[in-house]
Specification:
Elements (H helix, E strand, L loop, with lengths): L14 H22 L6 E6 L14 H12 L4 E8 L2 H15 L5 E5 L6 H7 L4 E6 L8 H11 L5 E8 H13 L6 H9 L3 H12 L6 H16 L5 E7 L9 E7 L2 H22 L3 H5 L6 H23 L6 E2 L4 H5 L8 H14 L2 E5 L8 E4 L3
Parallel strand pairs: 1-2, 1-4, 2-3, 4-5
Antiparallel strand pairs: 5-7, 6-7, 8-10, 9-10
Helix pairs in contact: 1-2, 1-10, 2-3, 6-7, 6-9, 8-9, 12-14
């Protein structure tokens, strides 16, 4: 049985994989180079616990190979080591062949055929003195919550550790339905108990389902995903964000990507990566048929243009509010206030456009003008 979300997708990536791949492509190399920059040696470890086959039959890179590509791109400035685990033997053989190509190019790749949870201690040993990115993307139930929390506690606050995991919305919807019908012997409820680290999710799911009118389990899955992220970060210095991933714009989420970091920079970089990945995802889906029939827009480009203009207006209001007290604000420390509901959707270029217009109009000024957007310190203009 395939264990990664790509493991059974041999022909080509599905839209939800395009979104996930876009995040990895944008995010991984920035994480590795930024977090390793103050280490000696400059080294980061990337861990994919459900690595799948590594590459599609089309020749397109899967998540594990995208990490290998990042390691190859960064090797002149940062040493990136990889640790890949795949349970399915046939998929592992394919993965290991891909890994061999990168080993032959001088990239350190450890590959293991087995259960992800059994290799967590080995990963931590490899990552001593290095920053660590943990990517957990199972098909179905993932690691128990306690296993992930154990990694967070043992790693400490330095070197940096960040986690991106797939939280299965289909599992929660299915388990919620079984729970409501009293079908506890079908396996879904027990599996959700294991993933969530207890039975707490049951009341959360049922209450959200009832509050939404009891017609679907979408609200239940959303509520459980957010509570899961909160509980995962509880008692640590980590914060979290939850990003729903859908096959189509108006579909219920297939899964949620939950991102954990201890650094404001992490939230900024992940949000920027998610926004670019979303564009790739929407471009893959093509124009929404409902919108096209309504003549709101004819192409994906039209959609992006309309969203960009709307986002500029939204972020402009957010920036005015942010500096209203007159004190200088480092924008990287106020990611949520800057982007608001558009976090992970509006790109850095949209933020820059909104800020540039406010500076030009004389409403906002730079206390410090950074070389990159997240390095700006801004305040309400005093002149």
């Amino acid at each position: 049985m395939a264990t990664g979300t790509e493991a059974g997708l041999l022909e080509s990536p599905k839209p939800q994989s395009v979104y996930k791949h876009g995040i990895l492509e944008q995010y991984v190399i920035r994480f590795a180079t930024m977090t390793a920059s103050k280490l000696s040696p400059k080294r980061a470890v990337l861990f994919d616990g459900f690595a799948g086959r590594g590459r599609f039959d089309t020749g397109e890179a899967g998540s594990a190979e995208r990490m290998m590509i990042a390691a190859q791109k960064a090797k002149n400035s940062t040493k990136i080591d990889l640790f890949l685990v795949e349970r399915n033997r046939e998929d592992f053989v394919s993965l290991d062949k891909v890994a061999d190509e990168y080993r032959n190019r001088g990239i350190h790749v450890d590959s293991r055929n087995g259960d992800c949870g059994q290799h967590l201690d080995e990963v931590r040993r490899l990552a001593v003195g290095a920053s660590l990115f943990v990517f957990l993307d199972p098909c179905g139930a993932g690691l128990p919550m306690d296993s992930i929390k154990n990694v967070l506690h043992k790693r400490g606050s330095w070197p940096r550790t960040e986690v991106l995991l797939n939280f299965n919305a289909d599992l929660i919807r299915r388990a919620g339905g079984q729970l409501k019908k009293g079908q506890l012997d079908l396996g879904g409820v027990a599996k959700a108990d294991s993933v969530c680290g207890g039975e707490w999710w049951r009341d959360v799911a049922l209450q959200a389902h009832t509050a939404s009118g009891g017609t679907s389990w979408e609200a239940a899955a959303d509520a459980v995903a957010h509570e899961y992220a909160r509980r995962l970060a509880a008692g640590t210095n980590y914060g979290s964000v939850v990003a729903p991933v859908r096959r189509q714009v108006h579909h219920q989420p297939v899964y949620y990507l939950i991102f954990l970091t201890q650094a404001p920079h992490g939230f900024w970089v992940f949000g920027a990566a998610a926004a670019k990945a979303r564009e790739e995802w929407i471009d893959c889906l093509g124009p929404d048929p409902d919108e096209r029939e309504g003549m709101l827009w004819d192409t994906v480009a039209d959609q992006f243009e309309r969203e960009h203009d709307s986002a500029i207006s939204h972020i402009t209001d957010n920036l005015r509010s942010l500096v209203s007290d007159g004190r200088p604000k480092a924008v990287v420390e106020h990611v949520q206030e800057v982007y608001g509901d558009l976090y992970g959707e509006a790109k850095e270029t949209t933020f820059s456009a909104a800020l540039r217009a406010l500076v030009k109009s004389g409403e906002i000024e730079f206390a410090t003008k950074g070389a990159k957007p997240h390095q700006h310190v801004i305040r309400k203009a005093t002149g």
